[in-house]
Automatic annotation (TrEMBL):
It is a multi-pass membrane protein. Its EC number is 2.7.1.107. This is Diacylglycerol kinase. Its main location: membrane. Catalyzes the ATP-dependent phosphorylation of sn-l,2-diacylglycerol (DAG) to phosphatidic acid. Involved in the recycling of diacylglycerol produced as a by-product during membrane-derived oligosaccharide (MDO) biosynthesis. It is found in: Cell inner membrane. Belongs to the bacterial diacylglycerol kinase family.
């Protein structure tokens, strides 16, 4: 067991939930891209219920929207860790940040692709 591990059982779950909300709060306050994706989700998720699509298609339409939020959280975490290590320009730091950005780009392309295929495919 790691000496850095905290509580177990219900206490651990409650702590983890608090940390998760802290992370969401930090992302919303500190990351414009996250706020933009939240707005996109506020528009697209209710819109998914307007279209005459199957339950499975609706679930996929919603899932890809939420996936973009997950990718942005991970991208922001990578950027924060890189910046914590050093603000100096370094090719590996640039690569890590660029790859996180590329992952977000792919997730946005996924949203567009899924929605277009379901609605017009």
């Amino acid at each position: 067991m790691s000496p850095f591990k905290g509580q177990t059982g219900l206490k651990r779950i409650l702590n983890a939930t608090g940390y998760s909300f802290d992370g969401l709060r930090a992302a919303y306050r500190g990351e414009a891209a996250f706020r933009q994706l939240v707005l996109l989700n506020v528009v697209l998720i209710p819109l998914a219920f307007v279209f005459d699509v199957s339950k499975g298609e609706r679930a996929v339409m919603i899932a890809v929207c939420l996936l973009a939020l997950i990718v942005e959280l991970l991208n922001s975490a990578v950027e924060a860790a890189i910046d914590r290590i050093s603000l100096d320009l370094h090719p590996l730091s640039k690569n890590a940040k660029d790859m996180g950005s590329a992952a977000q780009f792919v997730s946005l392309c996924l949203i567009a692709s899924v929605w277009l295929v379901i609605l017009f495919g």
